[in-house]
Amino acid sequence: MLSRSTLSKAPQAVGRLGGAMSRTAAMQRAALLHTLKPRHQQASAVPESESSVAPSTSATTASLAQQALAPLDTFLRRHNGPRPSDVESMLQALGFKTLDEMISATVPSSIRLPSELSIPESSLAERELLAHLQVIAQKNKVFRSFIGTGYTDVVVPKVILRNILENPGWYTQYTPYQPEISQGRLESLLNYQTVVSDLTGLPAANASLLDEGTAAGEALVVCLNAAKKGRKTFFADENCHPQTLAVLRTRAEGFGAEIVTGDYRSFDFDTLEGRLAGALVSYPDTYGNIGEHKALADKVHALGGQLVVVADLMSLTVLQAPGEFGADIAIGNSQRFGVPLGYGGPHAAFFATTPANQRRIPGRIIGVSRDASGNRAYRLALQTREQHIRREKASSNICTAQALLANMAAMYAVYHGPEGVRAIADRIHRYTQVLAAAVAAAGHTVENTSYFDTLRVRVQDAEKVHASAVARQINLRRIDAQTVGVTLDETVGRADLEALVEVFGGDIAGIDALAAAAAPTVAESSAVPRSLVRQSAILTHPVFNRYHSETEMLRYITQLQNKDLSLANAMIPLGSCTMKLNATTELIPITWPEFSQIHPFAPKEQTQGYAHMIDDLERDLALITGMDATTVQPNSGAQGEYAGLRAIRAFQASQGQGHRNICLVPESAHGTNPASAVMAGLKVVIVKCDAKGNLDLADLEAKAAKHREALSAVMITYPSTFGVFEDGVVRAIEIVHAHGGQVYMDGANMNAQVGLTSPGHMGADVCHLNNHKTLAIPHGGGGPGVGPICVKAHLAPFLPGHPELVNADGSPKSSVGPVSAAPFGSAGVLPVTWSYIKLLGGPGMTSVSQVAILNANYMANRLRDHYSILFTNANGMCAHEFILDTRPFGKSAGVQAIDIAKRLQDYGFHPPTMSWPVPNTIMVEPTESESKEELDRFCDAMIAIREEIREIEEGKQPRENNILVNAPHTINVVSGETWDRPYARQRAAYPLPYLRERKFWPSVSRVDDTYGDLNLMCSCPPMENYQ
Ligand SMILES: Cc1ncc(COP(=O)(O)O)c(C=O)c1O
Predict the structure, then answer these.
(1) Residue 579 CA, ligand 1 centroid: distance in Å
(2) Which residues belong to any copy of the Glycine cleavage system P-protein N-terminal domain (predicted)?
(3) Angle 126-137/23-34 helices, nearest 10 degrees?
(4) This prediction's pTM
């Protein structure tokens, strides 16, 4: 083994962005590290002073040497906020001597892990981590990808890459539920909706979905809900992308819908009379043909169904909009608007529809409203209609979606503008024309009747063509033994074209002549049906016509960013959301080409790096959760719930228990739990909680007994959504098992569990993790999300499959269908979680849980004399979050939780979670990453607000016109010419001294929710509003 002294001579800096070390030097160092055992696995991991066994002399020397040469860039002390001396004083304030003592008073001993969590190859220092991961990344081969199938390579404008994707000011934002401090991303997401609605020709668009496959599933459900009762048949054209069809079929099962596939051109739709709810067709189709769908739309409408069109945003810049030929819904993936491939995700899907379907749209919708001063303000529209409110009546479980990626796509349109995106589309099409002609000249048959960017080519021997392509580091689509597919994109240059022509045995000398003969635009091309050339204008709004120079673009992005409070500004103490540090080191690898430029269907030989990382992750996540197997496929926590429940159902069916269809869900559960259960075809039965917020075990037992014959599962969140480690969890699990049910554990609160206990240890059968909470993937303003599920061995065969996940003989790896369009979901951000785990290791992650619990209890303790804390255990301890009861202030001062939340914005904080799980309360989760100073600053603000409430209670401030109900205060209001409020301007804006140093101004006054819902406007306001 090499010693650290050898290593310390190696160059230090690692990473493309740092750039100081040559690639070779970095590789050498990484290779050295690869042979090194991680620190915690080395013989001398425990300092001798703490070891009870007398060390041998050589062991002593080794240990001393290791300590002497240890790196300084260790991670845990950067990740955890409180310094060791702070931990000591915080423990003292709580009456404990050690963290262990505090944990013993918090976590029931019956569920504590018997031994320390151990993660292989972990506890690396930051530079070691990057070097180690670089070696793994190098196992991925970055080939030119012309596979298409819904994913293309892109040119990510660097100004967007650096200032959005790599910028914590954007990626650490939370979902914009607090519009006054979220106007930047709300505007950007509204731009996204405008792009989608402009290009699809359908006026109502949402602010992103998870991927194209799940968007097709969402469209199916909208059609089912809109159709006359009993209509459960949905037609899907066979020339949609295979993964889209596969996810659609999965989704249909839970709703009892029948998917009929065929070729829409020859299919006899009359056979579906009285049954048809809708039809799905791809435009262009998976092989590149651009069909005319007007007649199909008419036929589907005549039969009482809706037409769903899977569209491609780039081709829509030059092709007729689906809304113009009668589509009711358009869905698709916005990836090719400047979002990297990332081995399949994360990318934002889109969903646009007619006004008739407006209130059925799944996911989040940004709307335009006004603020208390009468100014225009953006907000999440129809918030009260959100899926979690609909609970068991929900037809979709979308919560976290892909906001960050939607922002990137929107900015791509802003940057290029209508002319720019058209020029890109026309250029792609010119290249495709030249390639089509060259391929035909080489003696092959281009089978397309029409095309934009994709060719289906009949050759004599497809294997030979693929071999020739691979030799040139090119991937083509494998269709069959005599057919290959090629999809071109905006990255294609002359060298690629020449290589492609050679792959098909063509003559590169002829390229110039073919290029000169190619139609310069789609509008003039014979490859596109004349009737389908776009006539309507696109992206006419000023926002798409103003910011085309880099300086202007940079300033626009920054201007929006400055309106939004992110972790770069202050703590975001959102209960159940775990807004922890998203460390820079963890984020750096996601833009390495070896991770970001890999097509999800690239051959296995080229994706060994991903395979290595995903294998590591699957094993490590199973260790963390005490389970036996993992899939990283689900794109969000809610998708994990759905995948987990489907695994349970498939297992039960395999045992002859397929009739089991009851899912017990506690009344305290997050709304996605019942929604996911319904989507998995289960009936929800609600279980009560007692006055202390614990699961009512008597009610659970009674309901489990009542439904004994049909009990499928229970869904438990632990620690509970009330923020307590319930003693009764093991008993609850026993009850459900005794009645034949399986136990699903919602892992949203895993940040309090890691290393202390685990779902598997407690007895659960399956759980999900929210990697975008517990495991450091940033929230991105509402996504990306990654919601892996971990299962016990008996459920492992029922994890979701995928058309691309096949055994050596071509048979599917799982009999259960996929829940995401890509085999490994949002694979492109998995390096974040991998890095988090490898940096911290088992002991580090255990420390994280301890400090998360310490921080919460420290705050609860400081606030206890000012607010009542709603739920704690018998020792007065909360878990990693706690609920402040703000309900009494309604009576005493006319103040509601929302007033406190808005006033907190004046103090420079993002408000905690509001009115969930208990109406009119606030739930605080500080996370381990916040320092004692930041916790104190927040507590000071809350205490100062309590005093402001007292002034109202004591009649010193009027109940209707006071500093709370008028909050937040914008700079315009505070610096306005007139001031007629019963408190000073200075108090409104600078209630505590620290604000003189770090004031964050809400950019609009309180937003009027009712007005926004009544006057729904979901794309950019008309131009006159900007003049
Ligand atoms: C307890 C709980 N379960 C499930 C979810 C859904 O997770 P996601 O938003 O990743 O879909 C959330 C989201 O906040 C949650 O708090």
Answers:
(1) 13
(2) 77-504, 527-801
(3) 100
(4) 0.94
